[in-house]
Specification:
The chain is an alpha/beta fold. It has a domain of about 180 residues: Nucleotidyltransferase, domain 5. About 40% of the residues lie in helices and about 15% in strands. The protein is built from 21 helices and 22 strands. Strands 1, 2, 3, 5, 11, 12 and 13 form a seven-stranded mixed β-sheet that branches. Strand 16 and strand 17 form a beta hairpin. Helix 19 crosses helix 20. The longest helix has 25 residues.
């Protein structure tokens, strides 16, 4: 009998559900549901780097996306689902009370952004991140040595401290804080109460400074030395963590009813989206998997023998089992990739939103019109930019419009652009921005290699890798290597489904499940040797500009 598994992929604006035949790896049905409050821009203030999401967006969208899925799936498929797994953005934490209930679901907090999930791209906590880094650098034990040596404002402790300092009501009501990925697994298995709650290895290791060598998290006095507001929080976090192929529990009766599933369905522990995507890409040592979306997340793995006692400088963590059990997961990435293109698109199309006739349209029609115009704007920019020559006298830009994730996290830095002249038109600028994102990615590859982590090939996942030959060929020429694009349209959800298949006992290991269920390659981009040579001096210009903007600190 056919057995199915479900992968749920929570991105920045939507959740995607994927039903997979566990015996063949065939993607049987998929559906997408957009977060309604997020689409309206509620609870976000981009000018303040504030990006928050309401837990009801996650809950309501989950119910809707699964119900949509059953309209596409084979008849009776829901009764043959054996396992579910989630992947989410991260670090995206939320405050919970002493019963494990998210504060934003409680009376008095339903419209308070500080009581909601603090999305990965929220950079409010730059000061707090700097203070954590400074404390780690003077401590007898550097608790950041397995997280690249620099703490980011995108990560758990900085965000928690920022909220505690800003909001006395949230501070008084918060018993603990949990990551979005862990919250989803706990929600569906009725293990949200602190007495039952357990945490994933992926989130804890990469964002919370968890490491088995210090039996969980840094000691309480490390955190109180930063700010007494953190007193006791580390002791309310579960010291043991679990890989995403392990069983969190079975689907609760309540959620089985809501989703049309059996209470026998296994729910695994969860992971971050990029780590799950790397699993779908059959990641292995020497292969860098890039999830290319609004930002990028770069994942590779290394054997314990290869990595030894090395601490890789300036990345987003090295964690045993965070991607595939038995090997060390290594994470890096760019804080803006597609977001940089979207920023430029929004900049040049700003007047459209101000046209009176557009504003007279009903809300849904206006959204559809603007979405169409935005898509066409990027298509036309790409078509024109692709025709421009690679030149040393053109525009040089940085990709730091949302700060820098890696190498060497610093969310306080800003993008810069040079070479603008009266003849600079939108396509020239757009080409400069595309080259900037490719250069930023090359800097990450170089950091891995300089730290002794060999990168032989790159596999890409995500919308950009499917939509733009121009961007992908530019990346291949800048990086000087071939790039494989996966066939799966939902690679992160597919990776989650692979985790679910193992947790449900359908495969003995992630590696065994990958042999059947991982996505094949759809297309390969080969670097052009002539263009590789042309880009070398342009990359040097990018590095020079980066060093100047960063005050000479970038190494």
């Amino acid at each position: 009998m056919t057995c199915y598994v479900l992968g749920l992929d929570y991105g920045s604006d939507s959740v995607r559900a994927l039903l997979v035949d566990s015996k063949t790896g065939a993607e049987v049905a998929t559906s997408v549901e957009y977060f309604p409050r997020w689409r309206k821009g509620l609870f976000c203030e981009p000018e303040k780097d504030q990006f928050r999401q309401h837990p009801l967006d996650y809950i309501e969208s989950l119910e809707n996306v699964i119900q949509q899925l059953w309209t596409q799936a084979p008849q009776g498929a829901s009764s043959r689902v054996k396992g579910i797994s989630f992947d989410t953005t991260g670090s995206t934490p939320i405050a919970v009370d002493e019963n494990g209930i998210a504060l934003a679901l409680k009376k008095g907090f339903t419209t308070n952004p500080n009581a909601m999930f603090v999305l990965w791209k929220d950079h409010s906590a730059i000061k707090e991140a700097q203070q954590i880094t400074e404390a780690a650098n003077i401590a007898s034990e550097n608790y950041l040595k397995y997280e690249g040596g620099i703490y980011s404002s995108e990560w758990f402790w900085a965000k928690v401290l920022f909220i505690l300092r800003q909001d006395i009501e949230v501070k008084n009501a918060a018993y603990c804080w949990v990551e979005h990925c862990d919250w989803m697994s706990a929600l569906l298995t009725d293990t949200s109460h602190p007495d039952k709650f357990r945490a994933s290895r992926c989130a804890a290791g990469h964002k919370l400074m968890w490491h088995e060598s210090w039996e969980g998290y840094p000691p309480n006095d490390f955190f109180t030395g930063i700010d007494p507001l953190l007193d006791g929080l580390r002791d309310r976090l579960p010291p043991e963590t679990f890989t995403a192929d392990q069983v969190c529990g079975k689907l609760s009766k309540e959620w089985a009813g809501k989703l049309g599933l059996s209470t026998d369905v296994i729910v695994s522990f969860s992971a971050f989206d990029c780590h799950a995507g790397a699993v779908a890409a059959n990641v292995k040592p020497g292969v860098l998997t890039k999830v290319m979306g609004t930002s990028t997340c770069d994942i590779t793995v290394a054997s314990h023998e290869d990595i030894g006692d090395k601490c890789i400088r300036g990345i987003c963590g090295q964690v045993d089992g965070s991607v595939v059990p038995g090997v060390v997961g290594l994470e890096a990435g760019q804080s803006a990739f597609g977001d940089l293109y979207a920023w430029f698109r929004d900049l040049i199309s700003w007047p459209i939103n101000q046209i009176e006739t557009v504003n007279l349209l009903d809300h849904e029609t206006k959204l559809q019109l603007i979405s169409h115009l935005e898509q066409q704007t990027l298509i036309k920019l790409g078509e024109s930019a692709e025709k421009l020559p690679i030149t040393e006298t053109g525009i040089t830009a940085l990709d730091w419009v949302n700060g820098r994730r890696t190498p060497d996290a610093d969310q306080s830095v800003s993008m810069a652009i040079t070479g603008l002249k009266m003849g600079s038109q939108a396509p020239q600028i757009y080409r400069g921005l595309v080259e900037a994102t490719a250069f930023g990615a090359k800097a990450i590859i170089e950091r891995f290699e300089n730290e002794g982590i060999n990168i032989e090939r790159v596999v890409t996942i995500g919308g950009i890798s499917k939509k733009s030959d121009f961007i992908m060929q530019t990346c291949a020429d800048v990086w000087g290597c071939s790039i494989d694009v996966l066939e799966s349209e939902q690679s992160c959800a597919l990776g989650a489904a692979i985790y679910a298949a193992v947790a449900a006992g359908l495969y003995p290991s992630v590696k065994a499940a990958q042999q059947v269920m991982a996505s094949p390659v759809e297309k390969t981009y080969l670097s052009n040797p002539e263009n590789v040579a042309r880009y070398r001096p342009l990359y040097q210009q990018y590095q020079a500009l980066a060093t100047f903007v960063d005050g000479g600190k970038l190494s």
